[in-house]
Amino acid sequence: MTSDQIVTRTTSGAIAMRNLGARIEGLQLQAVQAPPTAADRAALIEALCLRGHLLGCIADLEHAAEQAEQFVREVPGAGPAYLARARTRSVWHRFSEAWRDLDTAQRCGMDPADVDGERAVIHQAVGRYDQALAIRRAAARRRGDFRSLAALAGIHAERHENDSAQRLFRESRRRYRGVSPFPLAMLDVEHGHLWLAKGTLWPARTRFAAAQQRLSGYAPAQGHLAEVDAALGDIEAAITRLRPLVASSDDPRYAAHLARLLRDVGRAEESSRCREYAAQRYDELVSRHVEAFADHAAEFWLGAGADPARAVPLARINVEVRATPQARQLLARAVRARSARAAPAPARLGQPPSSRAYLAE
Amino acid sequence: MSDHLSGPRGLLDPACDICDFFAFPSPARPEHLVLVMTLFPYAGPTAVFSDAVLVRFRVRPVTIVRAEPRARFLVGSDSEEITFDLTFDEPVRPAGNKLPMQVGRCATPAGETVLFTVGDRSGGQGTGIKVFAGLASDPFMLDAPSIIETLKTGRMAFKDVGVNTLLGANALGVVVELEAARWLGAGPLFALVTETLSVGKRPVRLERIGRPEVKNIGLQWNTYDTVNQDIDLRDLYNEEDAFALANDYVGAYRARLNANLSFFDGLDGKVDWPIDQNGNHPLTDLWLEDFLVVDVSKPFVENGYFEIEKAMLDGLEHQTCGGRSLNDDVLDTFHTLMVNGGKGPRIRDGVDHATVPATNVFPYLARPNPPQPKAQQTSARIRP
What we know:
The complex is a heterodimer of chains A (361) and B (384).
Chain A: H1 13-33, H2 38-55, H3 58-74, H4 79-91, H5 95-107, H6 112-125, H7 129-142, H8 146-158, H9 162-174, H10 181-198, H11 201-214, H12 219-231, H13 235-248, H14 253-264, H15 268-288, H16 290-302, H17 308-321, H18 325-339
Helix pairs in contact in A: 1-2, 2-3, 2-4, 3-4, 4-5, 4-6, 5-6, 6-7, 7-8, 8-9, 8-10, 9-10, 10-11, 10-12, 11-12, 12-13, 13-14, 14-15, 15-16, 16-17, 16-18, 17-18
Chain B: H1 8-12, E1 18-25, E2 32-39, E3 53-65, E4 72-75, E5 82-88, E6 103-107, E7 113-117, E8 124-126, E9 129-137, H2 144-153, E10 170-179, H3 180-184, E11 189-198, E12 205-209, H4 214-219, H5 234-239, H6 250-265, H7 284-288, E13 292-295, H8 307-314, H9 330-340
Antiparallel strand pairs in B: 1-2, 2-10, 3-4, 3-5, 3-11, 5-6, 6-7, 8-9, 9-10, 11-12, 11-13
């Protein structure tokens, strides 16, 4: 049995999600009773960010950001407050402001190792992989545990250094010592990304399915499974996966994906409803968090949104926020599509395009 | 904060995050020993036990060896240890019932399994044993900001009237009440710890606790540690066997404790605990013997925490059952011992009671505090 196949017993996904909710609720109720400590405030922000990621719940992420702003306002000069705000600002791709918060957090006495971990997140997000690697390698040398190796694996995966990434994913999994299903599910999704980037769909599907099996409510796992199912030609399976996500998540990416699939199988009315919802929601989110949603919104206008002219300025903003190879490719695609003065190869109703086209979104 | 949030693993997964451990003879049934663990800090009303976490109580006989340079505990061997292991099923929703129900099992050293339903305050019953598990009012009390300010500024920042940081907080509680003679034998001294472990063929220790605040005050604060300041020692410490520390990190634990215990000693401007020629605080090694010690031959007292240890240090016979009761204000005991060696006035942190005092009868833990509603809801969206 390879370490990829090791089945680590973790808390059932249903219990873990329920308990994450109970933790958030408990911390919120506590704050009504007694002034929360800095650690409690940071824990609440962390928990909201985690749930936001797992469920694709943007409202949770926005709430976390509000809490972080309040934390800085009410406890000025507290390192944990700036660290927490830096994290939420990173989530919204406000990297320069996040970086300034990290500097302040360090000046306020936060552990440089914690602060550097967040700096590595920003380096990686904006494509400064060498700097991110230097920090993550130093952390892994200090303590080569699940967390440090998983972070290192993620960077190698983004650099398409597949052998190193595979080895680190395996080693990271082997060193997991907890019972929470969240870290392993997240690791599986990252591992799946690696295969997806290589275009090897079945291994990607295996990893996404493992994440989904461990944590059935994990929205990104379910969303990626739908993406792979569609690319493998099983459009109905993808639609079945996306429907509950569209209902449960306030992230429009799932509605956008569903709109495209429905359009391709000829269900125009339902597709149109999903498209309308996604368009409205993207407009709303771009107006509030343009840095974070510029790329997804651009993808939407290139795909189900079928308005490449709207994609170009968004893709341009995305390159300004983070000039990664992926961001440049998105801009190039948007410009090409606009020049062609049409959405990219809109399939006629009921006639799906080449299944691999679904990976573009 | 006792043992709440005592390491990255616990922070990530509250269902394995131990808050506290208590062990005391039952006030109402003196021939019974009561073991209590709380976990899941700030548990919301819907919190449940993990189906992948095993809760273990470990008990070993212990004797006091009068030797130089100090008296110490001699803990019984592996073969003398008895354990009580609790596991939990995934909650199920019985037909027609709105609330999900969770069932747990306690495996006794005799091979018996005691079944219980989470939240049932009458508990499950076996031969000479009763077991409760469920949401309860968190019995710990502290004014956390005053402790943090003390640690930051180097001056005692306790107020006459403090604010209990855990006011209204709940935790998941596990209570095992044992008929002492049946399960433990003569003793009368026993060393006790509790742990959370992963369920499986080879359980991995996730967290453990003997005494309160060993990790959060003793090992977390790294400002005064002159050996290393760049590592959180708490999860390394959590993984250790309380009755047999491995050699790998003992030096690191000792350095951190030496620094922090000496810091507390200096808070009143005089030295009550002079460090030895090796740079060790006199209490460091005792602190690393991280278990509660209970004398089951003595009746219940509410404030017996550390009395057996203190008597041992002073070369005296202990007078009480020791251990730790649910209503004992152990932080005042800790601060007084550390700051003035128990030779000066009792040092109070201004918080003397938990939200709701524990009771004298099974299941001892107070009922959960009702939620105080907060108007913070996210608006629902209409989706396709």
